[in-house]
Write a structure and sequence with these properties.
By secondary structure, the chain is of the alpha+beta class. It is 39% helix and 23% strand. The protein has nine helices and twelve strands. The chain has a four-stranded antiparallel β-sheet, sandwiched between helices. A three-stranded antiparallel β-sheet has the order 4-7-8, covered by helices on one side. Helix 1 packs across helix 9, helix 3 packs antiparallel against helix 8 and helix 5 crosses helix 6. The longest helix has 21 residues. The chain starts with a helix and ends in a 5-residue tail after the last helix.
Length: 290
């Protein structure tokens, strides 16, 4: 068993008993999957050697995307496919974040909010890439990955995009490259992202539930050149299937307390944090997708 599975086996039922009145069905499903992964709950696969006839039985995995036991091979397959399709040009990573004042709202309205974040960010990239002052191509290529956790399992939703440096012009039927160190202006991208997210919230009838200060704060978009060797894709690959914390970061589980390792942004020094087991499970589950 892995460390996260051990924690869920020891304290999962206690968590359900305490929060069953307000627990999303997805959270209950994840607890069940993680606790029972590679057990008789999901069946048995029997491998038999054709030469000697000896059989080997293996309990099947749960397959849940939030189970740390089940995701490693999916990550490797995904990355291989992306690298095979990568264009042989410079790439950028665009990161769209939302201010802290709107995060509680997003966590309470995940399905609508995540959809709005993707719509607002992707349409903003397309609009600015089509502008003749920057690239002048109406078909940019990109993919985005939603990432919701911070290093201490806090809730911090943002989207990473890997974007080739340029765009295709359907008018000219030609590729129009960007500058090696500049894709589109991030200040304009940030303002457009915020405005379009606001429009999506109005369409969804959720605008009034968002704190007014969210619109008074600048929304941050970061753009970094990541070269042409697949660095951006290798960075993103673990987050496509990765869960909020891996077994390797768990230091110990003792006296209803979970201690795990983390690093501050920009630092390589390992630090530790200790949480009550119930709080650890709560932080883990808030990153379960709807």
């Amino acid at each position: 068993m892995g460390a996260v599975q051990d924690i869920f086996k020891a304290y999962g039922q206690e968590y359900i008993s305490e929060f069953s009145h307000a627990m999303p069905k997805e959270h209950r499903k994840v607890i069940h999957a993680v606790v029972n992964c590679r057990s008789a709950e999901y069946g048995l696969t029997v491998y038999t050697c054709k030469s000697c006839g000896k059989s080997h039985s293996v309990f099947r995995s749960c397959g849940n995307r939030h189970c740390p036991t089940c995701q490693n091979h999916k990550t490797r397959n995904w990355l291989d496919q992306r690298l095979e399709n990568q264009l042989p040009i410079n790439h950028f990573m665009l990161t769209f974040t939302v201010p802290e004042s709107v995060r509680f709202f997003i966590r309470s309205n995940q399905r609508a909010s995540y959809e709005a974040m993707f719509k607002a960010s992707s349409s903003s990239i397309k609009t600015l890439a089509a502008n003749e002052r920057f690239i002048g191509g109406d078909v940019p290529g990109f993919f985005g990955v939603l990432h919701t956790w911070g290093r201490q399992l806090t809730y911090h939703p943002h989207i990473h995009y890997v974007v080739p440096g340029g765009a295709f012009s359907t008018k000219e039927k030609a590729w129009r490259p960007s500058r090696p160190d500049f894709f589109v202006p991030v200040k304009a991208l940030s303002a457009m992202f915020k405005a379009r997210f606001k429009d999506e919230m109005k369409k969804a009838g959720l605008y009034q539930a968002i704190p007014p200060e969210a619109w008074e704060t600048p929304w941050n978009v970061n753009c970094s050149s990541v070269g042409k060797n697949g660095h951006g894709m290798r960075y993103l690959a673990p987050y496509v299937f990765k869960v909020a914390i891996s077994d390797s970061r768990i230091v110990r589980v003792q006296d209803h307390t979970v201690t795990f390792r983390y690093k501050k942004p920009g630092s390589e020094r390992n630090r530790t944090m200790s949480l009550d087991a119930t709080e650890f499970i709560r932080r883990f589950l808030q990153h379960v997708l709807p």
